[in-house]
Amino acid sequence: MDYLTSFLAESWHVFRQAAPFLLFGFLVAGLLKALVPADLLVRHFGGRGFASVLKGALLGAPLPLCSCGVLPAAMGLRRQGAGAGATTAFMIATPETGVDSLAVTYAMIDPLMTVLRPLSAVLTAVVAGLAANLLPERFIPALKPGVQATSACVSGCCSGGCASPVASAETDPAVPATLSARLRDGLDHAFGEMLADVGLWLVIGVLAAGAIAAFVPPTFFQGLPGGELTSMLVMLVVGVPMYVCASSSTPIAASLLLKGLSPGAALVFLLTGPATNITTITVMARTFGTALTGVYVASIVLCSLAFGFLANRIYAALGFDIHAVLSTVTEALPAWLEVSSSFLLLVLIARAVLHSRHDHAALPCEVAQR
């Protein structure tokens, strides 16, 4: 009972800290969908130059889509003529960071990681996009106009909504015309399909963070042989195959940091966990080809290790002890706001997941077969 009480208390503490910032992040995501034209993501992605790759990374970075949810959006971009490099950059920057995950990173870790995380994600996306542009066209299958940009709602991956900004814009002719209608549509999407897609995984991430906080010894990572390289490789082995969205990876990383994990190793997990998983890699290989998938995975692995080492050097150069900061963190917001936000977020998650399952029962999602 003592172990169970400690686990539940730690999980509730993590969820309380994250809830207000998650609600704010999803609010901003809804506003982005309402105010940013969907065809903007298509018009600027053509060609094989550096500019299109950079645009793919920068335009994808604020969108809170998971590594599975971004696949239909990327397929829609490719169908509309986006280059392989721009599409690859978009597929990496989008799941690795987003307005919701940045808000939670600021709340649960520190401002420096809040800067390093999106910067590393964008640079990783640019490197991968430029590498993808070096591949001969014969190694990259072209998606024909007849191929549907269906959602990658695969068993063990996405838990809810199957829509994406690009796919929705392509398939839904009834785009709201007035500002109020677009705002309503954007907020419905953010707190409906988006929240259904990541809600259960967010809860799982919070429970995992609670288990780490309750059961892992405080100096666990300090005693690993091999120093920082070993901890980074461990995070790499854990992060690449598992599915965890950017928001749910943050409380896990924060709990690991409290157990002695280096900031660089935490950054490795924050970059690889949201961007890769077995299902995404499998579907991507069938859709975009093994060559482009290899560039995608290799770029994420190599860049995450490089930025992990760099992050440790930056923290050391600034004399910033992230473990001391995390261990002395006090409540950032009033208790009443955290508690009310927590209950509101739980209700919204339950509502979104139940509505999503009801919709799926009426019209099941299909996985893109090619």
Tag the structure with descriptive keywords.
370 residues; mainly alpha
Task: Walk me through this protein's architecture.
This protein is mainly α. The chain has one domain. The chain is 71% helix and 0% strand. It contains 16 helices and no strands. The longest helix has 37 residues. The protein is globular, with a radius of gyration of 20 Å. The chain starts with a helix and ends in an 8-residue tail after the last helix.
Summarize the structure.
71% of the residues lie in helices and 0% in strands.
Structural class: mainly alpha
Tell me the number of helical segments per DSSP (H or I, 4 or more residues long).
16
**Arithmetic mean pLDDT:** 77
- Helical proportion? over 70%
Shape: globular
Q: What does the main sheet amount to? A: none
The low-confidence runs, each spanning 5 or more residues with pLDDT under 50, are 145-156, 158-174, 363-370
**Strand content range:** under 5%
User: What is the radius of gyration computed over CA atoms, rounded to a whole number of angstroms?
Assistant: 20 Å
**Structural domain count:** 1
Q: Kindly, what is the distance between the CA atoms of the first and last residues, rounded to a whole number of angstroms?
A: 50 Å
Give the SSE order as H and E letters: HHHHHHHHHHHHHHHH
Q: What's the total count of β strands?
A: 0
